[in-house]
Every structure is written in C-alpha cells, then in structure tokens.
C-alpha cells in the first residue's frame, strides 16, 4: 500500500537532503512532483562548461537561471554540477588558434570560467562538483586521459579546487565519479583524494554517483567504499543515483514495461541502499536522484540504443513505485 502521508524530503529530514537532477522541461512537466518530494536541485546538463560558455567569453546562463529561480521560489537548495569535466567541454578551452593552448592560457581560461560561474551561482548553493570523472577505469593509471591533463598537467585538479575556493570561500567543493564502489576504481579514487588532502587542497567532499543496478555493485563493496572515503574526514554525497532494471550484460530491447520480478528486485535494492545511507548519515549529507521519475531519464537509449529503462522511484505517470514505499516505510 502506498504511503501517501509522507514525502521523500519529509522521510529523510533528519538524515540528509533529498535531491533530483532537472532541466527546464522536467521542471515544466514534472514540477509538482519535484517541489513536493525533493528539497535540492542539480542541473542535469545546463551548468556544464559547454552549456555555460560555448564560446570564449560568451556565457549563456538562461537555462541554468530557470533552475535556480525554481529552487528559490520553492525553498530548495542547489547543488552545482560541474565546473570541470573531460566531456561536454568546448575545444576552445584547449586551443590557441590552430595550435594547442599553453598551460598558462588553459589555466587562465579555467580560472575565468570558475570565477564567472561561482560569482553567479554561489547564493543558495551548498555544494559544487569542481571536477568530474577524472579517474581512469582500467589499468594502473589513476588519472583519465583528458585535454585538461594533457594541456595543464597532473595538477589541473589542484588548480581547479584552488580557483574555486578563491571564488567562493564557503562553498562545499566536491570531486565526483562513477563506479566509485568497484574495488579497483575505489582504491584509485581514494588514492587521488588522499593525495589532494595531504597537499592541502581545499576539497570538502567526495561524490558517489551511484549509477547502480539490480546485481552490481554489492552491498559489501558499497559499504567498504563509504567507509574508505569517510576515513579521509570529508563529507560524502550520493550525487547521481538511479537503479537500472537491467543487469550490465542484459541487452534486451523488447520490453515495453518492467517485469514484476524487476520491480521487486529494484525495490529490494533501493531499500538496502537507503538503509546503508541512513546508517552512515553522519558522513552523508545529501542523496540526489538523477531523474524525478521513469517518464524521463538518461538511461533510455543508454547504453543500449532503442531500450527503455525504469530506474527511478516514480513511474511514467509520476506515481510512487514499490521502491518509494520501501524507502519511506522505515519509521
């Protein structure tokens, strides 16, 4: 039976913020669900570098401003995403005419971008992802190959945090990555963060994207990751959560709705995940879902083209699923 008397933000008010990734279309189409259930917003794409500064010196804030305005009107906090990324960043950051930009020019552009964005988007924000997805997935290298790494060098991460702290002295500054609970990547992520902390880098927290599934990662691996990151004395935030109803090697495209078995397993997983989050709420201060409902989410067509997915707590009609019932019925 659906628990109609409680919302996500009410259920977790004594634990952590409950956030959701949005864009202007979802605010228009799903605004009632968003304002009722959540108390934190993240721009899904509209605060990424290519969206905010597609050409050098031309900042385009209109779409992002709509999200900030919605948050202000509804008493919601904002979580910024993301100042630096290897993806969705215009090539002009790294070019000087037909040549590769110098380290000095790339750093100047980095600083200008961070300064301008944080000058506009600090009030009402409790955190920003300063760098996103910098860890190499496979092999022994810690850092992912990227134009930031190639043009600036390994200290581009430290520089980004330094510029962000100078621009916004009180902001929570985060590093963010996916597959953060897989032991191989977890250990590299931890190693990098510890190096940053030991160097005195102004980093406040660790983002766990939490794009998880019905089987992977294991609860033991998630717990181990939480404990390892928390041991650094930093705040943790679950930043992009969803629970795919397909296992990684399941390539089916014929389903028009999730099976009852999928929904039950998904509910079990959400319940177990949120039990862990509650257990570690002294370290976790926000949990953000990467869509409001199954009506719209990034896992449609990814990683399998032509496939619908149903990874969220609310269905395509914005009605609560069993996953929602389980995670709000703990009191």
UniProtKB/TrEMBL annotation:
Keywords: Carbohydrate metabolism, Glycosidase, Hydrolase, Polysaccharide degradation, Xylan degradation
Source domain of life: Bacteria
GH10 domain boundaries: 2-330
Pfam families per record: Glyco_hydro_10
InterPro entries on file: GH (IPR017853), GH10 (IPR044846), GH10_dom (IPR001000)
EC number, UniProt record: 3.2.1.8
Catalytic activity: Endohydrolysis of (1->4)-beta-D-xylosidic linkages in xylans
Family according to the record: Belongs to the glycosyl hydrolase 10 (cellulase F) family.
Name the record gives this protein: Beta-xylanase
Organism: Alkalibacterium iburiense
């Amino acid at each position: 039976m659906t628990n109609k008397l409680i919302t996500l933000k009410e259920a977790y008010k004594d634990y952590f913020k409950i956030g959701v990734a949005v864009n202007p279309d979802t605010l228009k189409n799903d605004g009632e669900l968003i304002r009722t259930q959540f108390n934190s917003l993240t721009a899904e794409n509209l605060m990424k570098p290519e969206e905010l500064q597609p050409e050098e010196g031309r900042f385009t804030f209109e779409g992002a401003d709509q999200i900030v305005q919605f948050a202000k009107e509804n008493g919601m906090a904002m979580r910024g995403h993301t100042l630096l990324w290897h993806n969705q960043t215009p090539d002009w950051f790294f070019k000087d005419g037909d040549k590769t930009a110098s380290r000095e020019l790339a750093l100047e552009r980095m600083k200008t971008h961070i300064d301008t964005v944080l000058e506009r988007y600090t009030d009402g924000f409790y955190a920003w992802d300063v760098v996103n997805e910098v860890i190499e997935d496979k092999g022994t290298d810690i850092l992912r190959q990227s134009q930031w790494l190639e043009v600036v060098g390994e200290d581009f991460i430290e520089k980004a945090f330094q510029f962000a702290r100078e621009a916004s002295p009180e902001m929570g500054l985060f590093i963010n990555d996916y597959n953060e609970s897989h032991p191989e990547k977890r250990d590299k992520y931890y190693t990098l963060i510890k190096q940053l902390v030991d160097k005195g880098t102004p980093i406040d927290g660790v983002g766990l994207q939490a794009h998880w599934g019905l089987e992977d990662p294991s609860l033991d691996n998630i717990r181990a990751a939480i404990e390892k990151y928390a041991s650094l004395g930093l705040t943790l935030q679950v930043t992009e959560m969803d629970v795919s109803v397909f296992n990684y090697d399941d390539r089916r495209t014929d389903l028009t709705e999730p099976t009852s078995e999928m929904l039950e397993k998904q509910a079990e997983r959400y319940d177990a995940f949120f039990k862990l989050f509650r257990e570690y709420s002294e370290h976790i201060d926000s949990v953000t879902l990467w869509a409001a409902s199954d009506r719209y989410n990034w896992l449609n067509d990814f990683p399998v083209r032509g496939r619908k997915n149903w990874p969220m707590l609310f269905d395509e009609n914005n009605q609560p699923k069993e996953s929602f019932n389980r995670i709000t019925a703990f009191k």
